[in-house]
Amino acid sequence: REAALNTKKRSISIGTAANIDAFHTDENYKKILGREFDLLVAENVMKMDVMHTNIDTFDFSQSDELVSFAKQHSMQIEGANLIWSNQVPAWITNGGYNRDELLGIMKDYILNVVGHYKGQVKSWVVVNEPLDTNEANQKSIWESVIGPQYIDYAFRWAHEADPQAKLYINEFDTELINEKSNSYYALIQGLLQRKVPINGVGFEGHLDVAIQYPYDQLVSNLNRFADLDLQVQITEADIKLQNSPDPLPEKFKQQASLYADIIHACQEVKQCSGVVLWGFTDRYTWIPNFTHHPDQPLIFNAQYQPKPAYNAIKEAL
Ligand code: XIL
């Protein structure tokens, strides 16, 4: 089967995050989700606060719904994410657990979840956003209680639970070559030196038309990680318009050409497995909640009309 968006060179996957509320209430949403993409990531329902409801309880009901939809539509499933600073259940953040206890909770969680989806979820974001853990909004209980070794443990347990699954690390604002992506690179080199079982590097791709992303730099940045013999992937692409003063039609064009750049960059980098969008319709994008400004970062408008960005991606694929 070919996803409608993916008709010509079939070299990379084209994926999207799926929003469970839209999935439950909006038939148009489901129709496009099943038609246009060949990879699905749950936007929220495969995160720890949803799946690990208490120390001895797991809830896979909503994630199972998305997984069975993906299977029916021959879409690959990516799991996101196992360990992150955010969306940690309150019973953990308020639990006062010590290092050994928290490691025990982590191990039990990873073995259960990855075990539950063994053979079905082909790739996992094992550790999400390991950098910036000192910022107030990114304070990670994992790093502060366990120490930086929490990353090694998480990958080793995920590998133990499903040795076939491709295991990714994931980070934002690392698309270009700069101080942050250099730190990301150094962190990953350390993992490889310690023989941590990592297969891939995710670059979120929350971009902005008001910022320049020189194409050659996107490619050379992806290439330096790929040269570590790892897969790379754009994991959460969306492109904000709100920060540009240009007229809307102009912004739509810039957005379209930046989406095309990401697709082309991924096609050009041999080990790039695909591009995943963080949703597909402006009707349900997370951006306005996050930035507190209206925005239109995705490829269909709120009425499900394809935007110039949609056509640019279709043309590029
Ligand atoms: C976001 C979701 O889109 C929102 O609905 C939720 O309220 C917060 O999380 N980086 C990530 C994603 O890795 O998991 C985040 O998703 C967006 C930023």
Give an overview in words.
- Its EC number is 3.2.1.8.
- Keywords: Carbohydrate metabolism, Glycosidase, Hydrolase, Polysaccharide degradation, Signal, Xylan degradation.
- It catalyses: Endohydrolysis of (1->4)-beta-D-xylosidic linkages in xylans.
- Belongs to the glycosyl hydrolase 10 (cellulase F) family.
- This is Beta-xylanase.
- The protein is α/β, with parallel strands linked by helices and 317 residues long.
- It has a single domain, classed as TIM Barrel (Alpha-Beta Barrel).
- The chain has helices spanning 20-25, 27-36, 48-51, 61-72, 90-93, 99-116, 141-146, 150-161, 179-193, 215-226, 248-268, 287-291, 308-316, and strands spanning 13-18, 39-42, 76-79, 121-128, 166-171, 200-203, 206-208, 231-240, 272-277.
- The protein has an eight-stranded parallel β-barrel with strand order 1-2-3-4-5-6-8-9, surrounded by four helices.
- Helix 9 links the parallel strand 5 and strand 6 (200-203).
- The longest helix is centred in the C-terminal third of the chain and has 21 residues, at 248-268.
- The two termini are 15 Å apart.
- The mean pLDDT is 95.
- Bound molecules: (3S,4R)-3-hydroxy-2-oxopiperidin-4-yl beta-D-xylopyranoside.
- (3S,4R)-3-hydroxy-2-oxopiperidin-4-yl beta-D-xylopyranoside binds next to loops.
